[in-house]
Design goal:
With 256 residues, the protein is an all-alpha fold. The protein is built from 12 helices and no strands. It starts with 16 loop residues before the first helix and ends with a helix.
Length: 256
């Protein structure tokens, strides 16, 4: 009997696990929204109370769509995948009213001085924020399953940003400190989610082309996150042209 040749990842043209992970981390370092001017202003304590409120309010639209996004992905997987992925929905929706990540975000909104029902209505969300978030739902609905799962891999970097954000918010905006439950939970949830998602896409990318799809999907997700902050920065920081019908800053809001 002949011997079957064992082909390494490099010989087959595929990236090794370490090489693919390095590609993703390099992309994140360059394109993840930790570099966006809005976040830089936040971390340096340069935002007003009103600008923080605008961020919390607009970001709620994204937070509220995360379990919808994960439900779409869940519906496309097999039973083994669904058993692992469904924790994400529980993490955000909770197991009963008053629990979960979305509830924690609403607590952050209240700490910021916002009305809960006003935030939940999404009435004052910027059009560009809405458009970017809806594009994410379209990506996981219409893209390949590999694209949908890979788009979640910004969680590879989110833990570091969340830790930095908590320190900055506590230092510069202490009136928010009662609303940090969401961030604290994500410090452990995000790495767990990223570990599963990366293992899944690495194991199921059979060709180098499919590995490049993973990288491209992560890049698109970074664009979606960046676009949300573009909307906030343009509307509330520079030049500060708040569109009609959007959340309006007041003199009282501007006091830190």
């Amino acid at each position: 009997m002949g011997h079957t040749a064992v082909i390494s990842a490099n010989e087959s043209g595929l990236l090794t696990r370490e090489e693919l992970l390095a590609r993703l981390h390099a992309l994140g370092e360059e394109r993840y929204h930790h570099r966006h001017p809005f976040h830089l202003h936040m971390h340096q304590g340069k935002l007003t109370r009103g600008q923080i409120q605008a961020w919390v309010l607009n970001r709620y639209y994204y937070q509220s769509r995360i379990p919808i996004k994960d439900s779409i992905i869940l519906s496309r997987g097999d039973a083994q995948f669904r058993r692992a992925w469904r924790k994400r929905i529980i993490d955000h929706d909770g197991t009963q009213p008053g629990t979960g990540g979305i509830e924690c975000w609403l607590q952050l909104a209240e700490a910021a001085g916002l009305n809960r029902s006003q935030v939940e209505s999404c009435e004052y969300v910027l059009p560009a924020t809405r458009y970017a978030v809806d594009a994410y739902l379209k990506l996981v609905s219409e893209g390949s399953f590999l694209q949908a799962v890979a788009s979640s891999l910004t969680e590879l970097f989110s833990g570091r940003l969340i830790a930095l954000r908590m320190d900055a918010l506590n230092k510069h905006y202490p009136w928010l400190s009662g609303g940090f439950a969401y961030f604290k939970a994500r410090l452990t949830q995000a790495p767990e989610d990223a570990e599963f998602a990366f293992a899944y896409v690495y194991d199921h990318a059979r060709t180098r082309e499919e590995q490049e799809i993973i990288v491209t999907s992560l890049s698109r997700k970074c664009d979606i996150l960046w676009a949300q902050l573009d909307a906030l920065y343009y509307a509330y920081v520079e030049p500060g042209f708040v569109p009609y019908g959007a959340f309006q800053l007041t003199e009282q809001d501007d006091a830190r």
